[in-house]
């Protein structure tokens, strides 16, 4: 019995060390054509190995429903039916936006064809290339079709994608990224790639595109092929211009002789970010109090020395738990009333993991103030905390008896009083002689 118990707990420990859990849930709905489901087995098996529960549904099937009684039935939705032009009633751009507002994460693949998903992408500051214009590149020289492109992973995206990931194979459309600060670029097109007509970008098609003022010619690394969007609720959506990059074919295809592609790793990393498994932060609690105090005050006085503390944790997908995180180097605190009166760095406390603390002086102005932490960085969860506190002038007995700046007034008042006292003393105590006048005598 003892041996069985030990084996049981070893199995539990092993499972907890292998299976990664999302911070929002593990149920995944995959919307894909049944005949193409087996094309992505490597990607789906990778999700299952992490502990996700996959449910498959045809684009035109009525069940299982996405939302029931205004409550999402799944934590994540993967939409790989990129070329479907008709969906079930509950799969619409409006329902997908509703899911995002209710903290359901989305992974959506676009197509070179015009579909309802193409118009939805525009709502997220993405401008897809015109229909029928896949991304094309002739470099490097290879035997594959021009629209099957190897793309290297930039080092700047190491926060989302595992470092030193091999180049990935890509085939699909591209899109221009807007200026929305909630957009998170994940993978951009190569500098030598361009979007052109389906004939492979012949000279005639390029000339026609140039004559149209560039309407049909999109080129360069400003084009995105995979991009994320993080809503204000914390939910995430990932847009990819081609579902083929998640396929078994591209995962097993070599980018060079003896060098496997990075599609498998890239797909898992992208899904991990989309499902709020990686780069997820939260503020556990905040504290504020006066110097040499421990409890917060209902109100503070101008010029008080205040201490503000925030405790931040990061989700660990390997253990499925939240752990204190001290890796933020540019966190700031604002003490604001309409406009920030105090803006200071909020550094990590070296003695306590996950603790960020700062001391500052309350401004010499009374009113209703707020402690605000508003941390926005691409790829990381948006951290926001706002705490309202009043700042009041000192009480009538709270002022110092003498102010150094008022000594000229003190001296003036004292000198005036002393002068008046001396004048009164001399006037009252001085001797007054009067000369009496006699009759018949004239005053001399």
From TrEMBL:
The chain crosses the membrane at residues 407-429. GO terms for cellular component: oligosaccharyltransferase complex. Pathway: Protein modification; protein glycosylation. It holds the Pfam family OST48_MD. It is a single-pass type I membrane protein. One of its GO terms (molecular function) is transferase activity. InterPro entries: DDOST_48_kDa_subunit (IPR005013), OST48_MD (IPR055459), OST48_N (IPR055457). The keyword Transferase applies. It is found in: Endoplasmic reticulum membrane; Membrane. GO terms for biological process: protein N-linked glycosylation via asparagine. Belongs to the DDOST 48 kDa subunit family. Component of the oligosaccharyltransferase (OST) complex. Subunit of the oligosaccharyl transferase (OST) complex that catalyzes the initial transfer of a defined glycan (Glc(3)Man(9)GlcNAc(2) in eukaryotes) from the lipid carrier dolichol-pyrophosphate to an asparagine residue within an Asn-X-Ser/Thr consensus motif in nascent polypeptide chains, the first step in protein N-glycosylation. N-glycosylation occurs cotranslationally and the complex associates with the Sec61 complex at the channel-forming translocon complex that mediates protein translocation across the endoplasmic reticulum (ER). This is Dolichyl-diphosphooligosaccharide--protein glycosyltransferase subunit WBP1. It comes from Macrolepiota fuliginosa MF-IS2.
